Amino acid sequence: MRIATFNINDINKRLTNLLDWLATAKPDVVCLQELKCEDRAFPITAIEAAGFGAVWSGQRTWNGVAILARNSTPVITRRTLPGDLDDNQARYIEAAVNGVLVASIYLPNGNPQPGPKFDYKLAWFDRLIAHAYELMAADIPVVLAGDYNVVPTEADIYSGHREQANALLQPQSRAAYQRLLDQGWTDALRTVKPEGPLWTFWGYLRHRWPNDKGMRLDHMLLTPSLARRLSSAGVSRNVRGMGGASDHAPAWIEIALPRDVLRGVMTNKR
User: Fold this and answer.
1) pLDDT class of 265 with cuts at 50, 70, 90
2) For the chain, which has fewer Cβ within 10 Å, the N-terminal or C-terminal residue?
3) pLDDT value of residue 260
4) Annotated active-site residue in 28, 92, 106, 219
5) What residues form the membrane-spanning segments (predicted)?
């Protein structure tokens, strides 16, 4: 099973890019972030024509997350992150796909910091950590995939950067990400490639892409049962170089799953 995460940065604006990548990469499951469209504007007709079912949670202008599955429709389990009934930002969606629970995550950016946006980022992170603990305790195969808006270590950003004030690099952000890993989650990309550049994001400004000044913001965390079956992982850098591309590139993993897991169906409801 090939599972990918891709911050598409406006799905309708970049629909051609997405469809071209789907046809070439042939993922089985895709987590999308930053749809930047209301639910009714989600391009489900084009997605289905490409051979994918989908569930999504949209929001006008900002945010928005989705999960796509090849030749099937994901079984929705949760449309929001628990812990704050007043939070209406579309940043989390969770669904079962062929016996694996998959979450698409768009964690708040948090800039500028300090300030209310950074406070919201950390509070949202606390909620994610609490929910991730429950998922880990349930002892089911789970993938937490998405744009975490966290650069975990200095090895995950280009050398000589001047981003020390960026919310993505703050000690609190990095500590929160480490708290997730300490629950027993495996950072799939770094497990496969423990050293060297592994960028998933290159900003549009200051020639970041042509100069390869990137960051690793998109992560895929696995429960132990899936981590044992992790066979490969990587970043489709070439997608960032397409005309009209998102500022992110898709990250992906491949999991070798037994048939009994592939045929299993989870029916947990919110």
Assistant:
1) very low
2) C
3) 52
4) 106
5) none
Tell me the residue range of the domain where 146 lies. 2-262
Q: Is 126 annotated as a binding residue?
A: no
Q: 49-62 pLDDT, tens per residue?
A: 999 999 999 999 99
Residue 145 confidence (pLDDT) above 60: yes
Is 87 one of the catalytic residues? no
- pLDDT of 266 over the 90 cut: no
Q: Is 7 annotated as contributing to ligand binding? A: yes
Residue 106: strand pairing partners: 147
In a domain? residue 222: yes
248 classed as catalytic = yes
Annotated binding residue 219: no
Domain CATH code at residue 165: 3.60.10.10
What is the pTM for the complete model shown? Answer: 0.95
For the question of residue 204 being annotated catalytic, the response is: no
Distance CA 10, CA 147 (A): 14
Q: Is 34 annotated as a binding residue?
A: yes
Rounded CA gap, 80 and 111, in Å? Answer: 22
Tokens of 151: 């650069």
